[in-house]
Amino acid sequence: MSSRGFLCKVFQGRGDGGIVMSMEAMERIMKEAFGDRLTLCNIVKQVLISCYEPQSFFSLIFSRANALESESFDF
Question: Which GO annotations describe the biological process of this protein (predicted)?
Fold first, then answer.
């Protein structure tokens, strides 16, 4: 899949489903592109990923170091 095609799928219109629909679409597109083979443990360089959970308004931080220490952090 070309990067342009991938980005077009990710950022195309949300439709009637709003945020929930776009989150489901994002997850589906990411799984199509990467499958289950790409996790934090597979990343070569150190990385820190910050994200925001919109339903609970909770911010989260994931790191490669956490993924190496515990399987429960290997997303």
Answer: lipid catabolic process
